Amino acid sequence: MLKTIGNVIWFVLGGVVMGLMWWLVGLIAFISIIGIPWGRACFVMGNFSFFPFGHEAIARNELTKQEDIGTSSVGMVGNIVWFLLAGIWLAIGHVCSAVACFVTIIGIPFAIQHLKLAYISLAPIGKTVVTKEQAAMARYSR
């Protein structure tokens, strides 16, 4: 119940803006054809930006216990390209949103979430979004 209330407040007070920014970057990536893998990551992280409470972004190899193209060195190169073209701008958007949230005492949990999303926006390739319970189980079963 608490995460639902947090997600609704988050969405209304700014989560929708950053989620739409992720989707906009994703659409641009899809239009370029070569950017489809980045576009897919944008839509996953955009959905996460809309309703982040109760979910967590983790590396896919941490979840599945096996490497794939996004978690390999190819994914690392993809994240470097991503960082240079779009990641830094989305991170700046999340940091600016975090600063705006930090101004109010009530907004501190939202600011912390924006900072987590800023970190994720720097290198989203190879990550997926799961519930906090699934992430805990993946980490526990190492």
UniProtKB/TrEMBL annotation:
Location(s) in or outside the cell: Cell inner membrane
- Tell me how this protein sits in the membrane: Multi-pass membrane protein
Give the Inner membrane component domain ranges. 5-54, 77-127
> Sorted alphabetically, which InterPro entries does this protein's record hold?
Inner_membrane_protein, UCP028777, YccF
Q: Work out whether the entry's keyword set contains Transcription.
A: no
Query: Record's Gene Ontology CC terms?
Result: plasma membrane
Keyword hit for Membrane: yes
Q: Which Pfam families match?
A: YccF (PF03733)
Q: Which UniProt keywords apply?
A: Cell inner membrane, Cell membrane, Membrane, Transmembrane, Transmembrane helix
Membrane spanning stretches: 7-36, 80-112
Highest rank taxon of the organism: Bacteria
Q: Which NCBIfam families match?
A: PRK11770.1-2, PRK11770.1-3, PRK11770.1-4
Kindly provide the name given to this protein in its UniProt entry. Answer: Inner membrane protein YccF
